Amino acid sequence: MLRARGRTRVDWVRLGFAVLLFGIALLTALPAPIRAAWLVGLVAGEGGHWLAPVALLTLVPGWRASAPGRIAGVLGIAAAFLFAMPAMLAFRMSHAVSAEVSRAFGPTPWAATAHASRTNPVELLDLYTGVPIGDTRVRTLTFATRDAEELRLDLHTAAQPAGPSPLLIIVHGGSWRTGDRTELDALARYFAARGVAVAMPDYRLAPDHRYPAARDDVIAATAFLRARAADLGLDASRVAYLGRSAGAQLAISTAVAAAGDPAVRGVVSLYGPLDLRWGYANPGNPRVLDGRAALRGYLGGTPDEVPQQYDDASPVTGVDPRMPPVLMIHGARDDLVSPVHTERFAARMEWAGQRHLALILPWATHGCDAILRGPCGQITLYAVERFLGDVLR
Fold first, then answer.
1. Residue 227 has what pLDDT?
2. Which of 18, 30, 203, 379 has its CA 20 to 30 A from that of 1?
């Protein structure tokens, strides 16, 4: 009798463990109800290959001995499947990603050093051991002063550059009101180790500083680097931008402002809000992110109150035939910035007859590239390497 009661207690603990894991796993497939759930779902989606074996611990011997144990086993199997799904989908679409990227930008990655580039969109071993980065050097420079506030940038370069390096300017996200230049440090070091100098500038934040202040700061950082290119070991004739979330809107807006400049070779948008009127009319869940409040703080009002601000700040309205090539990566499950933004911008690039590629990742949500070793992080590295290999040569 005591042994049976002990077995039952174990199975109820097993069931509680299974319910917890299944609830987390559901966030890889269902919309996040609150911001904390989005963050958990992000980690579960990009690191689920670690959690799937944990979920199968519900099947340790004895799980069939009672009803709670059997329910726990079924939930554990279901959770393991959901956790593994992002990596499975990434491998399934790996060939298509490779073909699409090669068609748009060619098969040759950027690599000016001995550090290895990505040979496949997703590598199984790297999911567990991490993505090799390499040795880099970083300098912090002040590029402008605004209202007695110094604006700085971090310049990452290879430890031993092989001559003047092309320049990639990475613009951080944060709904235009948070974040700083350290946000994408691992991504910067990865490309710097492979011979692309990477600058990551700070910019003035909303609501204290409204559009176009942030964009003008990115322009100022670009001008500063190009003016000092010889001293910094940069090739000022080869410049590209990469932006994440709000940073993507700033990166493309900067490229729009420089349309026709032959030195601006390309732009990468990672899940950027690119049609701000549409975004205000179709906001996401405000319990995850109050997108309308972010837009009002950034632009100074609603589309009815400041229509020109929305038009000027929306990259979709600035597309013209002088635009450089654009690579866009977006998660189909993005709860903060809908992939419709990327689809609408891609349609405008098609209209303008300019080279572009939009990769929509079916499992991915906002911020999916934050874990470089994850499925989205690896695909992002692979696609951006080939994009830079084309536009910066």
1. 98
2. 18
